[in-house]
Amino acid sequence: MQDIISMKSTHSESQSHKVMKYLLHNFLYSNNNSIIKRALEKYFGNRFADIYFKLSDGYEIVIEVQNSNISVNEIISRTKDYNEKGVHVLWILHGEGKCVASAKYPQDLKHVRISPAENFLHGLYGGRVYYLNINLKKTPSISAFFALHFSKPIKKRLRKKFKTQFDSYYIRDTHHVNLSNLNFLCTTFSGYKIARFYDKNVKSLLKSLITSYCQGKRKVINKTQLKQIIKKFHKKFGKYLIYDVLLDLEKEEIIDINTTLLKKIKKKIS
């Protein structure tokens, strides 16, 4: 396999996109010993996949490295085309590219703009979006490779879809979770064959933390205890996600919530 590709821009592809593909291809191969075949720009009949891997368990993966603006319909179309060939798809976005509504970094931040594409991928990958940031100096390198989870702002006026003359976006809080390893998980989610990593969904992580905080006992949450939970977890997770998780835990009968308080919580995130 030829491991070098031209780093020059063409009429259809920017230099940064070529660099991202090359760096990510080598980075993932170096950190995943289950890959037995690999290729850059592999042809699949009507598509050129940015990165292709075949795993030791037989799964085939294509990775679409997105730098430029892309519509949700185009993401769906490409994903379905690969799926029809039995191939699982992993989308990775350039965190400082035109595909994002605002630059993304491995940070917990409030009120960040996300594009419709980011919003769709968050649902497609079960509560995470994968990003790659690069350093394009003399010796190009990966400056960050990370996943973000989005949650809605607690202020209802910020939860709508915003539109400008040329595009649209959502406002979300971002939550960063470290990728413990770069092994691939190939699965079917929402009717699509996707590939992702074994990182933990932030909502699941918060569920575990709150359950442990309640000492694993079915506990009645009152106003005082709610304040204590918010104080402990608010900085990283924000109020909306805390309320959402508490409602899930109440439905799962892991905790009980005072009836009056339960109504207030439902109203806050409805």
Give a summary of the structure in a few sentences.
With 270 residues, the protein is of the alpha+beta class. Helix content is 33%, strand content 31%.
Description:
The radius of gyration is 21 Å and the shape is globular. Strands 1, 2, 3, 4, 5, 6, 7, 8 and 9 form a nine-stranded mixed sheet that branches. A two-stranded antiparallel sheet has the order 10-11. Helices cover 33% and strands 31% of the residues. It has six helices and 13 strands. It is of the alpha+beta class and 270 residues long.
List keywords for this structure.
270 residues, alpha+beta, Trna Endonuclease, Chain: A, domain 1, two-stranded antiparallel sheet, 6 helices, 33% helix, disordered N terminus
The DSSP helix count reads 6
The helix-and-strand class reads alpha+beta
Give the helix level as a range of percent.
25-40%
* Terminal CA distance: 53 Å
The dominant shape is globular
Strands, total number: 13
List the helices and strands and how they pair.
Blueprint lengths: L14 H16 L4 E9 L4 E8 L4 E7 L5 H13 L3 E7 L14 E6 L1 H9 L4 E7 L5 E11 L10 E2 L4 E10 L6 E6 L2 E6 L4 H12 L5 E3 L1 H29 L3 E3 L1 H11 L1
Helix pairs in contact: 4-5, 5-6
